[in-house]
Amino acid sequence: MNVHLEVESHVSSVLILYGTGEGQTAKIADRIATVIGERGHETTAIDVRDRPDSVALEAYDAVVVGASIHVGEHQSAVREFVAANRDALSAVPTAFYQVSLSSANEEKRAEAAGYVESFIAETGWHPDRIGQFGGALRFSEYGFLKRLMMKRIAKDLLADERDPSGDVEFTDWDAVDAFAADVAAFVEGRLGVAPDATDGPGP
């Protein structure tokens, strides 16, 4: 007797919870939500500071956590949330993405990786997938002193544009898309669900 095992096709729900300083981590969260959503899954992106009390990790099939680096540290709200919900996160497929200027600088990639290792050590959480992306500089929003400070910090990245007047983005969006697709595929494999084929090309 031939037994045909069919992958169950149903929508899974993915929570994308993030902390952001100047908005780039939120922008990346929205992009991840879009890519995963295009595969037929339900996605919800929420700033950790704005999450309603009713948000329960148990209500989601998978969770993606995002945080950015400011003055060498991730947002405390993200670290505290992950540490407090470590057991719930460990029960579902998860991913973590980090946003920093270090990730955009070839010579500082090891430094960026060190921030991830510190986050894992501090929270005790081991995500299934990890992504690291370059951030952005919002010169249009900075005051005079902060603009000078950020130009000094990012002088290597700004070699081709010594006096930027507007925002400068260092995020590799192709890498973000690839990360989101990989996370979606991992979730589908773990849950035994198939992506929604109705969004693909017709016969």
Q: Can you walk through the features of this model?
A:
It is a single chain. This protein is an alpha/beta fold. It has two domains: 13-135 and 173-198, Rossmann fold, CATH 3.40.50.360; 137-169, no CATH class. Helices cover 35% and strands 19% of the residues. It is built from six helices and seven strands. A five-stranded parallel β-sheet has the order 2-1-3-4-5, sandwiched between helices. The chain has a two-stranded antiparallel ribbon with strand order 6-7. Strand 4 (94-100), helix 4 and strand 5 form a beta-alpha-beta unit. Helix 1 crosses helix 6. It is globular, with a radius of gyration of 19 Å. GO terms for molecular function: electron transfer activity; FMN binding; menaquinone-dependent protoporphyrinogen oxidase activity. It holds the Pfam family Flavodoxin_5. InterPro entries: Flavodoxin/NO_synth, Flavodoxin_CS, Flavodoxin_dom, Flavoprotein-like_sf, Protoporphyrinogen_IX_DH. This is Protoporphyrinogen oxidase. One of its GO terms (biological process) is heme biosynthetic process.
